[in-house]
Amino acid sequence: MSIEIAPMRLGSRRFAPRPLMTLLALLVVAAFVALGRWQLQRAAEKQALYDAFAAGNESTRVLTGATTPLPRFQHVVLTGRYDPAHQILIDNMSDAQGHAGYEVITPFVLEDGGLVLVNRGWVPVGPSRAARPRVAVSGEERTLHGRADRLPLPGLRLGQDPPLRAPYPVVANFPTHEAIERLLGEPRAHWTRGAELVLLDAADPDGYVRAWTAPGFPPMRHIAYAVQWFGLALALAVIYVVTNLRPSNGEPRGA
Q1: Are 29 and 236 in contact (CB under 8 A)?
Q2: Cα 106 vs. chain centroid, distance in angstroms?
Q3: Using an 8 Å Cβ cutoff, are 121 and 203 in contact?
Q4: Rounded Cα–Cα distance for residues 233 and 38 (Å)
Q5: What are the tens digits of pLDDT across the range 47-104?
Q6: CA distance 23 to 51
Q7: Terminal Cα-to-Cα distance of the chain (whole angstroms)
Q8: Fewest CB atoms within 10 Å of the CB: 20, 45, 115, 215?
Q9: Residue 115 near residue 107 (C-beta atoms within 8 A)
């Protein structure tokens, strides 16, 4: 079964597309439009994330071991002490200028006995990967301020990661909370449900580089990508029409 498209007369030219070219053009234009719509959807998701980040500072909640799950980026205050002997360095993290380094994750024992992870910020890689940065911190009781968040996620996780092992600080590549629980020997029941992680405020002491923002590209970047995909779809449609216009060779109208 073949697809036949009747030629159309456009002024002194005929529009007579070939069936195979028409099918290919439709498929590619549809793909470009779908990608543009996907980018618009991503822009809406990122806008919601940025709005949540901005709204996080509107109020401050006390984080304890008994706190129920808080909205992501909720500003919190927590009292307890760091566990400096069991710190984790998340590898493959970069600062705003793209320099390689680690994010320093320190367990924090809340005053009621609950546990939470605190991200104390970014540190650069040393002279070599074998030379781990010095991230010592006092275990004295203190009050911290920060934002409820979660551990950073990889773009794509392939297979099962090997278990985390001492010596400390342990270097890990996008560890899950479950992997950290096993490393520390602390079951889920000991951790607060209020937040998986706290991003330490820039004004609090004993931290490193902390230029916290909502993760990922800003919404306008996705909108720009969407415009590019829609533009490609339009350009392909125009090319399809132009390349399929042929001289009418003097044929009478309606021939």
Answers
A1: yes
A2: 22
A3: no
A4: 14
A5: 988 888 888 888 999 999 999 999 999 999 999 999 999 999 999 998 888 899 999 9
A6: 42
A7: 25
A8: 20
A9: yes
